[in-house]
Each structure stands twice: as C-alpha cells, then as structure tokens.
Amino acid sequence: MQDDDHKLSLARPKFFVPSLYFAEGLPFTIVNSMSVLLFKTLGADNDFIGFFTSLLYIPWTFKLFWAPLVDFISTRRRWIISVQWILVCLSAGLSLAVFAPHKTYVLLGVFALMAFISATQDICIDGYYLDILNKTQQAFYIGVRNAAYKIAWLFGSGALVFVAGKISEHLHQNGTDNFIESGWSCAFASTAVVFLILAIFHSKVLPEPQISAHAVEDKAGSRNLFEAFPRVFMDFIDQPRIVVILLYVLIFRLGDALLLKMAQPFLIDDLSKGGLALSTSDVGLIYGTVGTFFLFIGGILGGWLISKLGLRKCILPFALLQNLALPLYWYLAAYKPAIFTVAAVNAFEQFSYGLGTAGYTVFLMSTVKPRYKAAHYAIVTAFMALGVMLPGMKSGALESIFGYANFFLLSFALSLPGIIVIPFLPVKDLEQRQAES
Questions:
Q1: In 72, 227, 271, 319, which residue has its Cα 20 to 30 A from 91's Cα atom?
Q2: Which value, in Å, is the radius of gyration of the alpha carbons in the chain?
Q3: Count of structural domains, the chain
C-alpha cells in the first residue's frame, strides 16, 4: 500500500504543480512588479523605485540562512499551507495600507513582510517539488512550473494592474477623491481572495511526501539551526567548478534585472521623459493577454525540449534568445512605435523568457543534492536573487543618467558576460550526478 501511495503522489502533481507555482509567483509579483507601478502612479521617481523596491529582494537573497528550518522543522506541506494563510492577511493589509497616512512607508513595511513570507514559501514549494517528483518528472514539469510562475507574474502585472487602472479611471471620471488608491485597493483585495482560494485548495489536495532516511537522520541528529546550516552549506559547495557555477548564477540575469525594474515605468512615462505614455490599464492589458499566451508557449516548449534533448543542448541557445529581447526595448525607446508593436515586442520577450528560464531553472536544480534538497535550492536561488537585487538598486539611477534608449543598450551589454560563462559550466558532470542519484 505504501508503494501504491508513493506512485499516486508522483502522478498527482500534474494537478497541483501549476497551482503551487502560481501561488509562489503571485506574492513575488506583488512585491517586485506591482509595487513598481503602484509607486510610479503615486508619483515616485525612478531612482526611488529602483532602489527601494530592489531592497525588497533582501529576503530572497538571505533565505539560505533560514532554509534549513524548513528541512528540520515540521513538514513542507504544513509550511506551504501556513504561509499561504499569512499571505491572505498581508494582501488584505495592502488594500488598507494604500489609504494610510505616510502611505509610502507603510506600504514598504507591508511589502517587506510579504517578501519575507514569500521567500519562505519559495523554500517550501521548491523543496516539495523536488520531493514529490522523480528526476524525469522534474525535467518534464519544468515548463509547467515556470509557465505557472510567470502566469502569476502576468496575472499580477497584467490582470490586477488592469483592474487597478480601470477602476481608477472610472472613479476619476466621476470626480472621486483618492481614485488611484481606490483602484489599487481593489486589486490587492482581489489578491487576498486568490490566496484564500489557494490556501483552501492546497489544504485539501496536497499529499504528504515520504521523508527520506537522510532527512529522518538529520532531524534526529541536529539540535539546532547552528549545527544544521554549516553542514548544509558545506555539502552544497562541495561540487565541481563551484566558483564558475556561482559566477553564472550571479551574473546571468544582470541585464534582465535592469530591464525588470524599468520596463513598466518606461511604458507609462510621458513622451517628454522618453517613455511611451501608455495608460496603466493598457500596460495591464498587454501583459495579461498576449504576454500570458506567449509566455505559456515558451515555458512549455522549453521544458519539453530539455526533457527530450537534455540541458547541454538547450541552455546556450535558450539564453541567447532570452537576451535578444533587450535590444528590442531600445527600438521601442528610440522609435516610439504604435501599441501593436509594443505588444509584439512584449510577446517575444515573454516567449524567450519562458525558454531561457526553463534552461536556467533546470541548471539551478541540477546543483541540488538529494540529502538537503530544499536548503540547497534555497542557497542557489539566494545567489540568483542577489544577482537581481544589486543591479536593480541602481536601475533607476542609471536610467536617469543615460535615458531609456541607452539604458536598454547598457542592459543588453551587461547580459553578455552571463552567456560567455555558459560553455564553462560543468553541465555534463551535474547531469551525470542527477542520473545516478
């Protein structure tokens, strides 16, 4: 019966892998994307937006220090459900915080709490994914999980932003005070409802994975986090070409990180400031319709190709396609085309992002050893978050210096070192270790 239950648990993820990674992607989107547009519509400048919203990456950068807690305390299933109930409360808090006196600082405080909870949820869900799927299924579902994660990003950046923009426009036409705050309040209240549905759903459907003998041994033998962390970290760095691995993880998203912070301010900034002067609802519509479709196609195709061809044949071409989106934003900034062209560029960006992220994520998972799955994945993704946070902090200042067109060219130039490192990665060794474990 136990073997039958384990087989069932491996078959079931096709039903809840998308919902788990949608739940993982949505709070990340709220903190790192919706916050950008919120502060922009409230009148903040790009320097403030780039610096302070990038500081919100800190929990993802330092999550490796509390990641062992997830492996040594309780179960990942219980962690997942618990943090999702907390996200319900924090989303409701955001819907009220937009009306608070000194709202900028109150909002930053709530976003910081959500960032901490979201980073903790990432540890739980990523470890759960590695527990519940075998190696073949992990590669196959990588497109599904990345697509679900990015759809959550587009749901927040697209559908919820569209809702915020349309409600604000309607209230403004009716002469309502605080029309901007009211639109965002409705959007954040909607996220609270979504998290409520996810928390209830996951409490009903998530199976409890079997605990490995290593995990039982480590839980019994470890008295506290101070004993656990050094052992976990040393086990992670004991692998081939670790310096090259960490260099790649840190710099691969350098150009993408700059674009990530300034793409949406660019779309809504006035023409006199070098932007495209789109409305908030137009930005939400572009991200939430065409972008969603092409991201889904790119993510699924990327995961399928890696499962068929292997990571070695896919990682470099996927990376090249992903970074080609950066000079296309230079074209938008230089020539100010019609909204149809903007949507087409966004579609290519999302499609190529789906491919590139599939290769990047499979590589990150290949650095994880079976003994400490959740903690190791938290360590490597923490380095990834550091590589996104640091350039993001300077993105607003760099845009102010160079202007949008030259800023996007700079982003493209800074993406090239991450591509150059790829041929030196020990992909073959890591794939062989994964196959043997």
A1: 72
A2: 21
A3: 1
